[in-house]
Design a protein that fits this description.
Nucleotidyltransferase, domain 5; alpha/beta; 5 strands; single chain
Length: about 230
Amino acid sequence: MREAGLRSKIKRRYRPVTTVSKGSVFAPNRLDQCFDVEAPNRVWVSDITAIATDEGWLYLAGTLDLYSRRIVGWSMSASPSADLVVAALQMAIDERAPRGGLMHHSDRGTQYTSSKFRELLDRNGIECSMSRKGNCYDNAVKESFFHSMKTEHCSHVRYRTRDEARVSVFDYIEVFYNLERLHSTLAYLSPAQYERTSACGVPASPGLSGTPHAEVPNQPPSSSAVLGGA
């Protein structure tokens, strides 16, 4: 690689954003690291990460369907507030219209234990699951998505503004990751291909081994919405 002038991509360090408040009520870990799901809209997993820009941090909340590994809801904001995760989940609900039997898993961050977020779960009949204290493996699939996004994309770009970062992240999620990025877990299909294959009645093996929506409140993905908010 050195002789060819090549080098591997290595993810830069980033600041953790999970905070826990005293007196928070936590849901049990109902998911229990069972990441193989047999149908869409049965288990969604969510988390928050921070993306560095010259203007300051841009926070991204994302919701992923474990069945196809597709990002079904997301939101970005300059503040890691409860509104951020509410907007991401509301986008997923609007886009996927789940009909019951859905579990949502996250860490124990204050955003996910907030009354706003728990009320949204309750209104839509979504069962709540949370990771055990200090155990990142309980939400490993969502952590893996953020790792891939930063390793492949964000960590090698200097964003001058949050707007630049919003456009870049939208591009990664909606244009590349959901539509094109291949997953060994999905028999080397993209999330969109995996869902189409399953919808056609052709079972897709789970693996060889066994808009922009830039600011809260959430809006449907559209290029005109990318640059909204600070």
